[in-house]
Specification:
single chain, alpha+beta, six-stranded mixed β-sheet, DNA-binding
Length: 286
DNA sequence: ATGACCGCTGGAAGCGGA
């Protein structure tokens, strides 16, 4: 079961890029960020023609998140991050696919720093940490995938001092990411590639792609039930080199066949103690 | 590095992104 995350940077502007990647790499599940379309503008029909069903949360102009699943309808479990009824930015969607709970996150960028945007970023992160702790405690297989807008360590960015004040590399941002990991999540890309560059983003400016000066901002975090099933993980760098590319490339993981369609029953059994999912599945089955 | 990008809104420049 291949699960990917991709900041698409406008799904309609880059629909051809997205469809080309889906056709070539055939991920089973895809988390998308920065749709930059309202709810009714999501290209559900084009994706269905390509074999993907979807759940999504749109927003005019900015943000927007989606979960795609190949030949499966994701079972929506949440369309927003709990903890602040006044926050209406479309940055979180969660769904069950083939017995795995998929959380698609788009953390605020936080620049300029310091300032209200950085405060919002850190507050959003705290809400994510609280919610993720609940998912961890529930004991179900979970993947937290998305654009975290955090460079976790100095080895996750090309050598430079020019970004020392950037929100992406601040100690407070990194500390929050580490605190999330400390709940027991596994950073899947780093597990498979313990050292060296693993860029998922290259700035449009300053020929950063041509110079291969990037950073690692997109992460897939695994709950303990899934860590032993991890058999591969990487970044589809070729996508960044295409015409009309997003400034991010897709990052992905491959989980062992225990979570494949053929053996979905095993993973479903692991979801048995999660009442909200059980009831949603019953509803979906009617 | 006071940076040369890209897309959105609105219909010009300014904002957001990272």
């Amino acid at each position: 079961m291949k699960i990917a995350t991709f900041n698409i940077n406008n799904i309609n502007k880059r629909l051809r890029n997205l469809l080309h990647w889906l056709e070539r790499e055939k991920p089973d599940v895809v988390c998308l960020q920065e749709l930059k379309t309202e709810q009714h503008g999501f290209p559900a029909d084009s994706l269905r023609s390509a074999g993907y069903e979807a759940v999504w949360v749109g927003e005019r102009s900015w943000n927007g998140v989606a979960i795609l699943a190949h030949e499966q309808l994701p079972i929506l479990t949440r369309s927003g991050l709990p903890g602040d009824d006044h926050d209406h930015q479309a940055r979180y969607v969660e769904a069950a696919v083939r017995g795995v709970l998929i959380a698609c996150v788009y953390l605020p960028n936080g620049n300029p720093q310091p300032g209200p945007k950085f405060t919002y970023k850190l507050g959003w992160f705290e809400r994510l940490i609280v919610h993720a702790n609940g998912l961890m405690t529930a004991g179900v297989p979970v993947v937290l995938a998305g654009d975290y807008n955090v460079v976790p360590t100095p080895q996750d960015i090309y050598p430079t001092r020019s970004l020392d004040k950037n929100a992406l590399v601040q100690p407070a941002s990194r500390e929050a990411f580490q605190r999330l990991l400390n709940q027991g999540w596994t950073d899947a890309l780093r597990r498979m590639h313990p050292s060296g560059p693993l860029w998922t983003f290259w700035d449009y400016k300053f020929d950063r792609w041509q110079a291969n000066k990037g950073m690692r901002l997109d992460h897939l975090l695994l709950s303990p039930q899934l860590t032993d099933l991890l058999i591969d993980a990487d970044v589809d760098r070729w996508v960044r080199g295409e015409d009309n590319a997003s400034d991010h490339a897709p990052a992905w993981i491959e989980l062992d066949s225990q979570c494949s369609p053929e053996n979905a029953g095993n993973a479903r059994a692991a979801l048995g103690d999660f009442p909200s999912l059980r009831s949603k599945r019953r509803l979906a089955a009617r």
